């Protein structure tokens, strides 16, 4: 039987060479699949993701979306040892989930519904994880995928349906607070009438920006500080009244300040109060997270 020689001059049998070549091809096969899937995803979703990134950059209510993809990738990277320690159990149900995501993508494209085409990307990633890795690994990746889902802006119709009631609620409640403090003021719709100035509670002042940011913040805080599902869900629910409440205080503070100094109320304070609202809301949210951890997780 003849012998072959490898690149170092060591004699090997033909059978061993075939086995070595087969092993190398098996090692490269998973990476080839990943590359093919990545290229297909890029061609399908690059325009969708680019438009969504443009919304993050131009819409203050969704500016936190720029931070969510790298944060989700980082959290998945932190759990990489736990993920790869689990057995690979391909699940055919992932094909159905992937097919559902593709249907959403097609419907979103045909109907020009941006939300469907964008959320289909996250659902498709979950379908791939379930198909190739199985349910156990998908469970570990559920939180990074949830973060990716929160990066998708809500449908415009849903957003607008929330903005108007929040505007009226903020203007009405702020007017009551200001009147209780002895300032002469009355409300006409979303317009707060003071003695020397009229304040309009615009869509940007409805509180939706702080609401979306604090909801995402509550998801992160729940993941970092709470351990039980009930406490994490409770923290997300608590973030809604906190966001609305601090925005009402912002509008009321603007009205009170405008009654004394219009230039200051419409200048520095108006620009700074948006950040102040978020910091105050996040501080209250952190205190609630600690309380839920102390009274719910430890029992």
Features:
299 residues; mainly alpha; 2 domains; two-stranded antiparallel sheet; 4% strand; disordered N terminus
Give a topology summary:
Elements: E1 4-5, E2 11-12, H1 14-58, H2 68-78, H3 80-85, H4 93-111, H5 114-132, H6 135-140, H7 142-150, H8 156-180, E3 186-188, E4 191-193, E5 198-200, H9 208-225, H10 229-260, H11 262-266, H12 268-297
Helix pairs in contact: 1-5, 2-7, 4-5, 5-7, 8-10, 9-10, 9-12, 10-12
What would you say this structure looks like, in words?
With 299 residues, this protein is mainly α. It has 2 domains: 4-153, no CATH class; 157-297, no CATH class. It contains 12 helices and 5 strands. The chain has helices at 14-58, 68-78, 80-85, 93-111, 114-132, 135-140, 142-150, 156-180, 208-225, 229-260, 262-266, 268-297; strands at 4-5, 11-12, 186-188, 191-193, 198-200. The strands form 2 sheets. Strands 3-4-5 form a 3-stranded antiparallel beta sheet, covered by helices on one side. Strands 1-2 form a two-stranded antiparallel ribbon. A hairpin with a 5-residue loop joins β1 (4-5) and β2 (11-12). The radius of gyration is 27 Å and the shape is elongated. Residues 3-8 have low confidence and may be disordered.
Please count the beta strands (DSSP E, at least 2 residues each): 5
Q: How far from one another are the termini?
A: 73 Å
Tally of helical segments:
12
* Overall pLDDT confidence: 83
Structural class: mainly alpha
Principal-axes shape call: elongated
Which bin fits the share of residues in helices?
over 70%
Estimate the strand proportion.
Answer: under 5%
Report the order of strands and helices: EEHHHHHHHHEEEHHHH
Using only CA atoms, what is the Rg?
Answer: 27 Å
Low-confidence residue ranges:
3-8
Side-by-side strand order of the widest sheet: 3-4-5
Specify the biggest β-sheet.
3 strands, antiparallel
Total individual domains: 2
């Amino acid at each position: 039987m003849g012998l072959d020689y490898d690149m170092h001059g060591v004699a090997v049998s033909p059978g061993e060479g075939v086995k070595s070549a087969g092993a190398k091809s098996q090692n490269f096969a998973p990476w080839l699949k990943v590359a093919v899937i990545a290229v297909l995803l890029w061609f399908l979703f690059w325009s969708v993701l680019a438009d969504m990134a443009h919304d993050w950059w131009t819409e203050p209510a969704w500016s936190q979306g720029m931070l969510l993809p790298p944060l989700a990738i980082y959290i998945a990277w932190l759990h990489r040892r736990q993920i790869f320690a689990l057995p690979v159990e391909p699940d055919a149900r992932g094909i159905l989930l992937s097919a559902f995501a593709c249907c959403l993508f097609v419907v979103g494209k045909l109907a020009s519904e941006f939300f469907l085409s964008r959320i289909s990307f996250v659902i498709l990633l979950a379908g791939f994880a379930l198909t190739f890795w199985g349910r156990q690994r998908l469970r570990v990746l559920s939180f990074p995928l949830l973060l990716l889902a929160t990066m998708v802006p809500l449908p415009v119709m849903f957003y607008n349906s929330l903005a108007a009631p929040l505007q009226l609620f903020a203007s009405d409640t702020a007017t009551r607070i200001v009147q209780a403090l002895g300032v002469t003021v009355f409300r006409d719709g979303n317009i707060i009438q003071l003695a020397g100035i009229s304040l309009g509670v615009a869509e940007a002042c409805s509180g939706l920006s702080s609401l979306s940011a604090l909801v995402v913040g509550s998801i992160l805080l729940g993941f970092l500080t709470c351990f039980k599902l009930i406490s994490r869900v409770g923290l997300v629910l608590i973030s809604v009244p906190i966001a609305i409440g601090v925005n009402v205080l912002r509008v009321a503070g603007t009205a009170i300040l405008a009654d004394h100094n219009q230039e200051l109320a419409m200048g520095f304070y108006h620009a700074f109060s948006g950040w102040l609202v978020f910091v105050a809301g996040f501080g209250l949210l952190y205190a609630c997270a600690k309380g839920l951890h102390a009274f719910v997780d430890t029992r």
